[in-house]
Amino acid sequence: MTPPNPFLACLLALLPLTALAGQQPLANTDWLLTPEKRGLLRFITECALPENQLLVAQSEGVLFEYYGQLGAAPGWNGFASSMTDAEQRWVSACVLARVNYFGTPVPINLRTHNDGNGFSISASEQQKQDFPYFEGGFFGNLFTLPPKQYVCTGDAPAKVLIGKNRICTLPSILDRRISECGFVIIGSCDEEFRFERDDIIYREVIYTWLRRH
């Protein structure tokens, strides 16, 4: 079975939008050429720009607006070169964490460890109670050729992940080194040395937690 396009089957734990403080023009209009590219652009922009920023573009008389939410790469304008290497990895981790094989809405809670490079997502005590199942951690770089896509596994039971339609940390039937979503499985998230890949120590890892009910 061929999985759906993973980047159009993503879900972000929605954050409230505030009044927009500024607009950023889309410098790379190639993103507007197909519905698939526009869908991926939306998810990248939500991860990259803060919630008071807006990415705008116009093509053939149609105005496109993409809203920021998390702020992992505030300078994002449609070109990978508008981000630092660390920002590329943060945005990639965010997009990968939101991939859903089935394309069904699933509430997730995104968190990071404090790595000291200026970007983090913390969880409130209420969120920790509401989202007790540790699914795993996602990292890589979608802006390289070929793209790098990795996942480490949490301690949530497989039956919980399957029941909640979140299987991107579970091994595929054909190759247990690769997840159902096509990510390379590097082992348990507890084994920090495993985050060294491609001669890079990835500190830009986003962890996902699933709701109790």
Describe what this molecule looks like in 3D.
By secondary structure, the chain is α+β, with helices and mostly antiparallel strands. 18% of the residues lie in helices and 23% in strands. The protein has 4 helices and 10 strands, in the order βαββαβαββαββββ. The strands form 3 sheets. A 5-stranded mixed beta sheet has the order 4-10-5-6-7. Strands 1-2-3 form a 3-stranded mixed beta sheet, with helices on one face. Helix 1 crosses helix 2 (85-97). The longest helix has 14 residues, at 35-48. The radius of gyration is 17 Å and the shape is globular. Residues 1-19 have low confidence and may be disordered.
Task: Supply the key terms.
single chain; 213 residues; alpha+beta; five-stranded mixed beta sheet; three-stranded mixed beta sheet; 4 helices; disordered N terminus
Beta content = 15-25%
Principal-axis shape equals globular
For the termini, the CA-CA separation is 29 Å
Helix tally equals 4
- Regions with little confidence, pLDDT below 50 for 5+ residues: 1-19
Helicity, in percent? Answer: 10-25%
Biggest sheet details:
5 strands, mixed
- Round the Cα radius of gyration to an integer and report it: 17 Å
Broad structural category: alpha+beta
**Beta strands, count:** 10
What integer is the average pLDDT?
Answer: 88
Instruction: Give the SSE string.
Output: EHEEHEHEEHEEEE
Q: Order of strands side by side in the largest beta sheet?
A: 4-10-5-6-7
